[in-house]
Automatic annotation (TrEMBL):
Keywords: Glycoprotein, Hydrolase, Membrane, Transmembrane, Transmembrane helix. PANTHER family: GLYCEROPHOSPHODIESTER PHOSPHODIESTERASE DOMAIN-CONTAINING PROTEIN 5 (PTHR23344:SF6), GLYCEROPHOSPHORYL DIESTER PHOSPHODIESTERASE (PTHR23344). One of its GO terms (molecular function) is glycerophosphodiester phosphodiesterase activity. Its main location: membrane. It holds the Pfam family GDPD. One of its GO terms (cellular component) is plasma membrane. This is GP-PDE domain-containing protein. It comes from Anabas testudineus. The keyword DNA repair does not apply. The keyword Cell membrane does not apply. It comes from the Eukaryota.
Length: 561
């Protein structure tokens, strides 16, 4: 005779198994626990949280630094000597790491909500450690090589701050469901007080943080100044190779009002356009003069420079990922570009009544034009026939001499000076990087009749912020993009912003109070139970189509017949 002991059955919880299995490799019911998380695992939870916050800042930094990707690649080129888009591997690893850590954070929150013990698997611990160390190394590297770029974070917050605040408030409000559940379940008063104090501190901080959010775009629209002029930084380098005639012609098609460039004086005294110290990046010097690749650009005469092709590198390297948008005719024009002289640029500017501002590099001491570089440049200006009022002169050396020889030139500076100092030196134009002037300083320069140009402005959000600040002009590598920005991306009256702020706070407060009341009511009327509670044999009679039955124990015992 065979006797059966009553079967023990339970309903499978696939979602819970996946949560605990992916997070801590606890796929089986008996592996899970409702005990308090150990101190060691709590430490790893804090490490995970810190890694998430650090990666969030790192991800935001690179998202907003899109305005300066070309500058970053140029820095890398100067250090390595080889051109490549260094932002691609950084963006790929940052996106992958942030996605992975965010996923672990969601799983950890699910554990807390389901009262499961946190137990991060050792493989995930290795992954979190790798993500943390990689991000720290990246932050240190940026500080050493590109430290000025961190200024993009507070500047970008002027455009994103009000909306990031709403997003953060929504996230913390949603988190109240988990917090309220934990407070309602626990019987430890000390734990309840600590959790409530921490949560309410964060929540109240978010309620008042708009007091410290400032943006020039929170203003009366009637006081908005005219649209800033756009100046082509090296022409239109997203559409054509930089500092070539075709690049400047393309910039004119994008409605720029002027050009910004860099000028070097050749061995025989011809000023020409070149941004780099050598000719390796933007010409085919490795093919024409392979033994002279590392020579400074100023040690070539104009005849040699005319033999170089200044466009094929653009088609090959595709520095802005835009070559695929060009027509075959445009590619043909690009492939036949040569080094452009200052005189050629000035003639083009004169024909289109466009202004030109350039940085002039003095040749090395052993250069034959070391003493005559100013006169060589002034001679090129005069020979071009351009009205002197269209030329912005930036070199500080021999400025008095320049005023005597060419009094019509507009005196400009690339050094940040006070409006009073600029007026004392007779300087009416100032060219600065966009992070060198605050909103208040921009307005001070404007009130002092100083024409301020900020470079390099490629993103619509940055252009909008500077527009609201009152800047008169910007220098851009992307005039084709800024052409599509006829008005600031967003503009909000101060009273409208206050209404949005107060409304969001009140809605959040009401939702949080409602969630806490509901969770307390829900927990007070609920018996403490195990979500995977074992059910006895009575459930065996239910159809297998309704529940999955696991046989925990089947005892066979036999008796002699």
């Amino acid at each position: 005779m065979v006797k059966h002991q009553p079967l023990q059955v339970y309903e499978r919880q696939l979602c819970l198994s996946c949560i605990t299995g992916i997070y801590g490799c606890r796929w089986k019911r008996y592996q899970r626990s409702h005990d308090d998380t150990t101190k060691w695992e709590l430490l790893w939870s804090f490490i995970l949280l810190f890694t998430f916050c650090l990666l969030l800042v790192w991800f935001y930094f690179w998202w907003e630094a899109h305005n300066d990707y070309s500058e970053f690649n140029w820095f890398l080129y100067n250090r390595s000597g080889e051109w490549s888009d260094g932002t691609v591997p950084i963006l790929a690893t940052t996106a992958a790491g942030f996605t992975y850590i965010s996923f672990l954070m969601v799983l950890a929150l699910c554990h807390i909500a389901l009262r499961q013990q946190l137990n991060l698997h050792w493989l995930h611990k290795i992954g979190v450690t790798a993500a943390l160390l990689t991000t720290i190394v990246g932050v240190i590297s940026v500080n050493q090589t590109w430290g000025q770029e961190w200024d993009i974070v507070p500047i970008s917050l002027q455009a994103t701050g009000p909306f990031l605040h709403i997003g953060a408030l929504a996230a913390v409000t949603a988190l109240s469901w988990i917090v309220a559940g934990q407070v309602a379940r626990t019987e430890k008063t000390k734990f309840q007080v600590v959790v409530m104090v921490l949560y309410l501190s964060v929540l109240l901080g978010l309620y008042v943080v708009p007091v410290y959010i400032t943006s020039p775009c929170i203003m009366d629209p009637t006081t908005l100044r005219t649209r800033p002029n756009v100046i082509g930084h090296h022409g239109a380098p997203m559409l054509a190779p930089e500092n070539t005639l075709w690049s400047f012609q393309r910039a004119l098609q994008m409605n720029v009002t002027g050009f910004e460039t860099d000028v070097v004086v050749s061995l025989d005294g011809v000023p020409f356009l070149m941004h780099d110290r050598t000719l390796r990046r933007t010409t085919d010097i490795g093919k024409v003069f392979p033994d002279r690749q590392m020579e400074e650009a100023s040690f070539f005469n104009w005849t040699d420079l005319q033999q170089l092709n200044a466009g094929q590198w653009f088609l090959k390297n595709d520095p802005f990922w835009t070559v695929h948008t060009l027509s075959s005719n445009e590619k043909h024009l690009i492939a036949n570009q040569s080094v452009c002289s200052l005189e050629q640029l000035l003639k083009l500017a004169s024909y289109h009544n466009s202004s030109v501002i350039f940085r002039l590099s003095r040749p090395p001491l052993e250069h034959p034009r070391y003493q005559s570089w100013i006169n060589d440049t002034l001679q090129a200006v005069q020979q071009s026939g351009v009205p002197q009022s269209l030329v912005m002169w930036t070199p500080d050396e021999y400025r008095a001499q320049v005023r005597q020889l060419a009094p019509g030139l507009v005196q400009a500076s690339v050094e940040k000076l006070s409006p009073q100092t600029l007026h004392q030196h007779g300087i009416r134009r100032l060219l600065l990087r966009y992070n060198q002037a605050s909103t208040q300083e921009i307005r001070d320069y404007s009130e002092s009749q100083i024409n301020l140009t900020l470079y390099t402005v490629n993103e619509p959000w940055l252009y909008s912020v500077l527009w609201c600040s009152g800047v008169s002009s910007v220098s851009s590598e992307a005039p084709n993009i800024l052409k599509k920005v006829p008005y600031p991306i967003w503009l909000m009256r101060p009273d409208e912003y206050r209404l949005m702020w107060v409304s969001a706070d009140l809605i959040s407060f009401a939702v949080v109070i409602g969630i806490f009341i509901f969770q307390r009511y829900r927990m007070s009327g609920m018996r403490s139970y195990n979500p995977e509670q074992i059910m006895l044999s009575a459930a065996v009679r239910r159809s297998s189509r309704d529940i999955n039955v696991m046989k925990e124990k089947l005892i066979f015992s036999g008796q002699p017949q």
